[in-house]
Amino acid sequence: MENISQILFQIALIVVPSGAVLMTAIYFLRRESEKEIRSVQLELKKERQKFFLPNRVDAYQRAILLMERIHPNSLIMRHNNPGLPAAGLQVKLLESIREEYEHNLAQQMYISNPTWDLVKKSKDETMKIINLAGQAMGAASNGMDLMTKIFEIVGEVGVLPTEIAVDALKKELQGLF
Prior knowledge:
Blueprint: H1 2-70, H2 72-78, H3 86-103, H4 113-135, H5 143-157, H6 161-174
Helix pairs in contact: 1-6, 3-4, 3-5, 4-5, 4-6
């Protein structure tokens, strides 16, 4: 019996240190492989950014341009036609907003959802301003009357939704760098 316990003790003297060495080796190998994985992931992230960053910057530029183009002041300057009936100018302004927005819909792929929602709401709110001004027009009102009413509403609103969206787009773009 004593012989068996000595044999077991000698086996334990061999197995325990061997197990400790094995566990240490496994620990360091695992740690080294995790470093390699992180390194590869970092490299992949850099490659993705190299590819996507220019597209994202373009998307933010185009979204800001969209906001500038549908800003009521800009719309009126581009579609300035005082002799046109108010209803005709209203339709023209609304069509212009829709066309600008639809032309830039794909940009949402590169812009965060909350910020794109601001862009969309800005478009909707700008259309509401134009419709509100249009509702205040009489049958004999002309384009000049509508433009004046839009300017009045814009003056009352203060900070326009398009301006809020531009600020959000700029802030988000700066966060990429």
